[in-house]
Design a protein that fits this description.
By secondary structure, this protein is α/β, with parallel strands linked by helices. The protein is built from ten helices and eleven strands. The strands form three sheets. Strands 1-11-8-7-5-6 form a six-stranded parallel beta sheet.
Length: 284
């Protein structure tokens, strides 16, 4: 029977460590603070914002919400972003993307302080991830997968790991982080020849393509570890991952569910980044 890798268990273990670190910072006069910048009221942004705010509060991190009107002009948006970016009391910034179509991301991506960039928006942090520099802030979802593997004692050294998906949000940075852990990496995509065979050969399979239930039982080897990063809605209107969980689960040694899997860890990784940023900025 496979082990269910539950995100809540990972998040709770992280929480205890983070609470101690926040208390230590506060004793030194540092109050860790995250600023969330949201343009408009997209339901998925609001949902993540609620979860992030609650997570910060339980750990003792201040969380400021800057809600900007959806029709804000480029000049005003950049001005508002700059004010947060330059605020010495703010240690970390999370900007919800994509922005409304009339706004350009490039100016703020170029200007964001890499030390405050909590979800790898800055090209400086992305470059660090690809260079194997652990001083960079990785995308929270990609790092959540690493945290899950560590919590459940999944040894990555020398393992054949296949990542299905090549986005800059999960697939590519995650592949680099796994490589840093001495795994042997294959990155697949829609044009991969014989995708099922490539996936079957993996000892560890990460599904991050954004396509509901695309990983079927015939694509998974016996005893494989399967991490499902996908968040989709199936034909019945229910949340599901990229993995056909019911069919795949009996073949696995470890598997993460959707929901209550990797996604449950991302706000804890965000909190970890804020604590790290506050600690580093204190020493500067």
């Amino acid at each position: 029977m496979s082990v269910l890798m539950k995100g809540a268990d990972v998040a709770n273990a992280m929480k205890e460590v983070l609470i101690d670190k926040v208390e230590s910072l506060k004793e030194k006069g540092v109050n860790p603070c995250l600023a969330i910048i949201r343009v408009g009221n997209r339901p998925d942004d609001l949902s993540y914002e609620r979860g992030a705010k609650k997570r910060m509060e339980t750990i003792g991190i201040d969380c400021r919400i800057l809600e900007l009107p959806e029709d804000i002009c480029q000049e005003e948006f950049e001005k508002e972003f700059a004010a947060v970016n330059d605020d010495p009391e703010v240690h970390g910034i999370l900007l919800f993307r994509p922005l409304p179509k009339h706004l350009g991301e490039e100016p703020v991506i170029a200007s964001v302080n890499p030390e405050k960039d909590m979800d790898c928006m800055s090209p400086v942090n992305m470059a660090k991830i690809f260079a194997g520099d652990e001083n960079g802030y990785a995308p929270c979802t990609a790092e959540a997968v690493i945290e899950m593997f560590a919590h459940y004692g999944i040894d990555l050294t020398g393992k054949r790991v296949t990542v299905v998906g090549r986005s800059m949000v999960v697939g590519k940075p995650l592949a680099m982080m796994l490589l840093k852990k001495n795994a042997t990496i294959t990155v697949c995509h829609t044009r991969t020849a014989d995708l099922p065979e490539t996936c079957r050969n993996a000892e560890i399979l990460v599904a991050a393509a954004g396509k509901a239930k695309m990983i079927t039982a015939d694509m998974v080897g016996e005893g494989a570890v399967v991490a499902d990063v996908g968040i989709n809605v199936d034909e019945s209107g229910n949340l599901c991952g990229d993995v056909d969980f019911e069919a795949v689960e009996p073949k696995t040694s470890y598997i993460s569910p959707v929901p209550r899997g990797v996604g449950s860890i991302t706000t804890s990784v965000l909190a970890k980044h804020v604590v790290r940023a506050a600690t580093r900025q204190m020493d500067m």
